[in-house]
Design goal:
Radius of gyration: 29 Å
Oligomer: single chain
Number of strands: 0
Number of helices: 3
Structural class: mainly alpha
Distance between the termini: 94 Å
Shape: elongated
Strand content: under 5%
Largest sheet: none
Order of helices and strands: HHH
Helix content: over 70%
């Protein structure tokens, strides 16, 4: 096989891969555009229902923090006795 045929074969496979990537990106963009168009056509009630579903589907970001604090407290790394906040300390010398 000559170098020309090897080059054409390599370029042909790269072109096919580029077409596939382009086609996938086009499909994702088309789906996103269709979703956004549907959102614009929603009534206020439909929009409220959709937003409530989206909020319910997303986890509470503080749940992870609470779970981590609970694990640390159970392991004895932290206690409930933190003392007063730094700004509440009486002035020195009084």
């Amino acid at each position: 096989m000559s170098w020309w045929r090897r080059l054409r074969a390599a370029l042909g496979s790269e072109a096919a891969e580029a077409r596939d990537v382009y086609h996938q990106a086009e499909q994702r963009l088309d789906a996103d555009l269709s979703r956004r168009e549907a959102e614009l056509d929603e009534t206020p009630e439909e929009k409220l229902a959709r937003l409530q579903r989206e909020i319910g589907a997303n986890p509470d970001p503080f749940d992870e923090v609470r779970a981590r604090l609970d694990r640390m407290q159970a392991a004895g790394e932290i206690t409930d006795e933190a003392g007063p906040p730094p700004g509440d300390a009486p002035p020195a010398g009084r």
